[in-house]
Amino acid sequence: MLRRFSTVYGASPSQLLVVSGAFALTAYAVLLLVPNPSATRMLVWFLAAVVLHDLVLFPVYAAADRLLRLGTGALRRGEDPGPVNYVRLPVLGSGLLLLVFLPGIIRQGEFTYHAATGQTQQPFLGRWLLLTAVMFAVSGLCYLIRTLRGRRAGTSRGGR
Q1: What whole-number distance in Å separates Cα of residue 56 and Cα of residue 62?
Q2: Which of 68, 82, 73 is nearest to 146 (CA)?
């Protein structure tokens, strides 16, 4: 019966339970915010973000990922895009950090930030660039270790 459910639904029953719980939590949060006059602005902002992501950003990063996979030859060979994953992760981390810290990086609300913290927003860009460089360096190091281990394992197997 579970197999039939999974075939019809397309995923396991536990996935349906988690998604239903997420929708219930979202509905509860929306009900708490409805009396708030800024709820309408929040809803408009959310819908604009969904449209921006689905119609603009998703096609852009899907095309970039396709080009990356074509560049490494993973699509032509039909194999797992191993090296691509070592680029995807730091790009994702860098993009998310940029999204979170963009107001500080472009110094939006500089006066308010200074009044609240007594600090300037000057280091935001440098720190984001440093974190991005560290993520790419760690990812590159992990890929190098993986490649060297694979070569060593291939050499030891071939030598037997």
Answers
A1: 10
A2: 82
Of 97, 95, 105, give the one whose Cα is nearest residue 64: 95
The residues near 69 (Cβ < 8 Å, ≥ 6 apart) are 75, 81, 84
Q: How far apart are CA 123 and CA 152, in angstroms?
A: 43
First to last CA, the chain: 49
Report the C-alpha gap between 47 and 136 in whole angstroms.
33
DSSP summary character for residue 118: S
Tokens 């603009």 locate to: 56
Separation between Cα atoms, residue 142 and residue 136, nearest integer Å: 10
Instruction: Please state the pTM of the whole predicted model.
Output: 0.62
Tens digits of per-residue pLDDT, 3-47?
887 788 788 888 889 989 998 998 888 777 777 777 777 778 888
pLDDT of residue 77: 59
> Which tokens sit at 10?
């397309």
